[in-house]
Amino acid sequence: MDLPPSAAPLHALPAWRLPPAVLAAVRDRPAGAAEISAYLYDPTVAARNAAALRGCLPGWAELCYAVKANGFPPVLDALLRGAPVAWPDGDVQVRGPDPSVVGSGRGGVDGFEVSSAREAHLALAAYGRVAPTRPPYLIASGPAKSTTLLTALVESGVSIVNVESPGELRRLEAVATRVGRRVTVAVRVNPARVALAGSLQMGGRPSAFGVPESEVPAVLELASRLPHLDVAGFHVHAVSGNLDAAAHLDYVRWCLDFADRAAADAGIDLQVVDVGGGFGVPFEPDRRGERPFDLDRFGEGLARLPIPPDVRVIFEPGRLLVADCGWYAAEVIDVKRSYGTDFVVLRGGIHHFALPTSWEIVHNFAVVAGPAPITTDAEAVDTDGRPVTVVGELCTPEDTLARDITVGPVRPGDVVVFPLAGAYGYEFALADFLGHPRADRVVLGESADRGPRYA
Ligand SMILES: Cc1ncc(COP(=O)(O)O)c(C=O)c1O
Fold it and tell me: 43-322 falls under which CATH superfamily?
């Protein structure tokens, strides 16, 4: 199959659907500036998402943002700082722009989920800037945690290591012994069955992630013999991109039940159930009728769950918090017709923005008109009312961002803008193929020319 899939008969988004700040960043470029190829971020959107999610979660829930979704420092800072929110349960620690709440963790996230030494460094740096007096709260996940990585994590004071295998338990024990610290662990479980219909499943099937459910007792028995490790509970992250709140509630219920049973059987004092991330965002509202994840419904269901008083339930969302805080903007370099298909060729591509191909989604875009192009009218390809294929600058036909999306006139110098590019955008792309410059990262409201570039 050609990826991304054909979008026909979808029309491109009108440019007016883009926020004014995005339009301004794309249009108000200084004359003579290099062609635009940039991620534009509004970190305040991420902070508002964290506040909205937190506003729906019961008081016992903890929120640890998955840094892999977007590790841009201003985004991490905004998530840690949080946004003011009025709590339905009457908790009024954050009601209005009160500077004393910075770092309290109530409006923003409680901590970060990290999968590499670099992510741990990014998270710790955010604490240093935004909440220097607050003890960092880092949870480490991911397969193939090497001795080097585990050493870096333990030395950085990681709060919980989500352990993926017996081998990792033994490596971690060796590291903890050498560093001279006790380490709190949660055993990552790959459930035998996952009923969630997300677009990417990491559980309920053979996978490198976690310990198969039936092998958990043996792994707990091993852990109980490793003197530097304290098993505090379990971790399950078995799905991504789920939009069904009722199904997600069932999933959390399953995680809690499983944790309760497994801990009781092994005689463990259950303190932590990390239920992972996996909340989706509607990438294809027009084509597939997708609707946003119903946070209110989810929160109401969670509030009815009986949680033992000393158990911390951790949510590790990535995508939900940051997807809509980013836009990928790439300038049109060429418009060509080839054997009847119109191609819009960008200064950019899958080395910056791999989401549409890797997720096999139709990722719609808007076209923002640029200055008059230098091509003559005779050479110009008239795309008006025609479906186009949007491709990048790499020397491979795989470098395709959209197929068969009907557009208006598109000319060189226009800018194609993909909303919902804040999660798994910049971080997810394989940046070095062909050696073109990486995409810039720009905070909206800061001048792309003079503001910090965070390369
Ligand atoms: C262990 C873990 N936690 C959380 C997340 C975040 O998932 P999502 O962005 O779907 O919420 C991921 C993503 O892959 C993950 O691997």
Answer: Alanine racemase (3.20.20.10)
